[in-house]
Amino acid sequence: MIPEFESFFSGGGLLDEGLRQSGVQIKCSYELDPVCCEVARANSEHAIVQCNIEQKLALDDCHAHAAAFTYPCNRYSGIAAIHGMRVGDALFLHAFRHIVLKRYELFWIENVPGMLKFAVVMEALSKLPGYYVTTFCPVETEIWLPQHRDRLILVGSRRPFQWNKPVSRRRISLKEILEKDPRVEIPKYVAKRLKGKYRDLPIISDPSRGDIAPTCVAHYSKDLSTRLVVDRRFKHGVRPYSVREYARLQGLPDSFQFPCSDRAAYKMIGNGVSVPVGRWIGRETRRYFNSN
């Protein structure tokens, strides 16, 4: 059978792209941000519902075999801890609410490893009556892509199942994702950061040394100087990543379009789930539903 998914907090549709590539069917995706919804609709054929999950009745939604929840991670991350904002987030309760009320056969939750520090969240999601829950942490995007990105994945199923860990035959190199003629903005503050005018120096990756990129983050939309790649054709010998390169770092195909500003694209790419992670989730879901 072909399992059907609902996708919550779906952003610009990166996880959905991975799920589609795996061969599952997505019935509905739910997202609050109107620009993200516009991008998702430009790249999808299934229903994209713009809504606030906090105000939406669970039983009014369409029904599917499985659900994926990728609620925001900005209150669980290490960066949040640096800024005194690592306080957790009540949005997990809305994932919990949908799971309890709709009784999916299968659910997946993606977030940062920092969520493990929140005992109340982990208890609620991993001790649900009637579900066998498995935790994968860290799931390392760098086994597929030239990007440091560790994630926590929870999968809950109505029957016990032996899940396969994510594997990759070959990691794409940073050199492979770089454009021949990148269209990039180089703001004046890039030079300032290179000269040490800010608290942190930029993270510079050199493809000729076999480097990979640091984690793609949504904040790149506000500060292109934090992550730079060596490119001798440009002033200072380095430059920011183009939107297309940033998308490739997350595993998006070049056919994926961004009918929005570059800054909005950087933000939704940084907030998204790496496409190979979605593909792994989809393939494991198919294996579950087609097992005896």
Could you walk me through the main structural features you see in this protein, from its secondary elements to its overall organization?
With 292 residues, this protein is an alpha/beta fold. The protein folds into 2 domains: 4-171 and 272-289, Rossmann fold (3-Layer(aba) Sandwich); 174-267, no CATH class. It has 10 helices and 10 strands. Helix 1 (14-22) crosses helix 10 (275-289). The longest helix is centred in the last third of the chain and has 15 residues, at 275-289. It starts with a strand and ends with a helix.
Question: Which structural traits does this protein have?
Answer:
292 residues, alpha/beta, Rossmann fold, seven-stranded mixed β-sheet, three-stranded mixed β-sheet, 10 helices
At a glance:
The protein has 292 residues and is an alpha/beta fold.
Number of strands: 10
Topology pattern, helix = H, strand = E: EHEHEEHHEHEEHHEEEHHH
Largest sheet strand order:
3-2-1-4-5-7-6
Identify the CATH class of the largest domain.
Alpha Beta
Number of domains: 2
Class inferred from helices and paired strands: alpha/beta
CATH superfamily label of the largest domain: Vaccinia Virus protein VP39
Largest sheet: 7 strands, mixed
Query: What is the CATH architecture annotation of the largest domain?
Result: 3-Layer(aba) Sandwich
